[in-house]
Amino acid sequence: MNSRIIVATLCVIILGACGDKATQDSAVDYVFANARVYTLDETLPWAEAVAVKGNKIAYVGDTAGVEALVGEATQRRDLGGQLLLPGFIDSHVHPIAGGAYATALSLDTFGSVDDWVRAIADYAAEHEDDPVLFGYGFLATTFGPVGPTRQLIDAVVPDRPVLIMDEGFHAAWANTTALQALNITQDTPDPVPGFSYYKRDANGDATGYLLEGTAGMAMDALDVITTEVVVQGVGIVLDIMKAYGVTAAYDAGVIGYEEIAASVLQRTEDSGDLTVRLVGSY
After folding, report:
1. What is the predicted pLDDT for the residue at 24?
2. In angstroms, how far apart are the furthest CA atoms of the chain?
3. Chain segment 77-91, per-residue pLDDT in tens
C-alpha cells in the first residue's frame, strides 16, 4: 500500500515538473492586450490581443486566450483600446542609397541664401569633429547669374572643407578650404569645358561653383560618403521606417553602392539594427 502511495506521489511530482517546463517553453516574450486589432483575416477580422515570441507573432485572439501564454518574463502592454495594425510593407525604397545621405546636411531647397549659410554654420557647430562637412539641397538659380561662391561659406566655416550638392546633384558649392584640399588652382583644367567645369571669376580663380562631373569628382576626392557613413545612415532610415509602422520593404536598388551593400547589411544585422525585413534587388 505504501509503495503505491510513493509511486503515485512521484508521478504527480514528475507530471507537475513537466507541466511547469511546458508552460515555461510556451511563454511568449510580449503581449499586447486590450486593443482593437485589425487582422486582415476574413475569418477573424478583429481581435483583442496579440502575442509575440522571438521574431514571430504567436497568437492573435481574445484577451482570455492570451493569458495562457504569459510567463514570468513576458512583457505586457495594455493598449487601452487603441488600434493595432499589421506592419506596413514598403514596396519601393532605397535604405542603403538613401542612408548614404541620412547624416548629411539637408538644405531647404526653397530657402534663401542667408538661410542656407545659417544652416551650414549650425551644422558645423553640431558636427565639430567631422573633418569634412557635406550636404545637399540648394537651388542654384537663387544665387543669380554668379552662382554660389566660396566666400559665403568661408564666412562661417573657414577651417574645414565644406561641399554642398545642389538639389539635382548636377553641381556643388564649395568653400576655399575644400578647393585647396582638391588642389583646384588657376591651372586646373576643366574636364569638359562649358559642361563639366569650375566656374571662375575675372582673375581666373575658382568661385566655389562646381558643375556636372566636377561636383561628383569632388565628392569622391573628399571621401564624403564612407562605409561608416552608410552604415550609420541605414540605421537612421530603418528607425524612421519603423516609426511609421513599416516592418518589411523591398530595396529597389543600390546604384553606386553595390560593392559595400552586403557588408553594410551584415554590419547592420550584427549590431541589432536591422529591424525591418528586407528583400532587395542587389
Report:
1. 63
2. 115
3. 999 999 999 999 999
Residues 122 and 74 in one domain: no
| pLDDT one-digit tens code per residue, 1-51 | 444 433 333 333 333 444 443 356 779 999 999 999 999 999 999 999 999
Q: Are strands 46-47 and 36-38 parallel, antiparallel or unpaired?
A: antiparallel
Q: Which of 160, 112, 170 minimizes the C-alpha distance to 136? A: 170
> Which residue in 183, 186, 237, 192 sits closest to 214, CA to CA?
192
CA distance 173 to 226: 20
Give the Cα separation of 43 and 109 in Å (integer): 49
Q: Is residue 108 part of a domain?
A: no
Grid coordinates of 61: 485572439
Give the whole-angstrom CA distance, residue 224 versus residue 178.
12
Q: What residue numbers bound the domain in which 215 lies?
A: 116-220
Exposure letters 152-187 (e unless 16+ CB within 10 A, then b):
bbbebbeebbbbbbbeeeebbbbbbbbbebbebeee
pLDDT 10s digits, 110-121: 999 999 999 999
Q: Is there a single domain that holds both residue 157 and residue 69?
A: no
Residue 114 and residue 279 in contact, taking contact as beta carbons nearer than 8 Å = no
Domains in the chain, number:
3
Residue 152 lies in a domain: yes
The pLDDT value recorded for residue 231 is 96
Task: List, for residues 39-64, the tens digit of each pLDDT value.
Answer: 999 999 999 999 999 989 999 999 98
In whole angstroms, what is the distance from residue 120 CA to residue 125 CA? Answer: 9
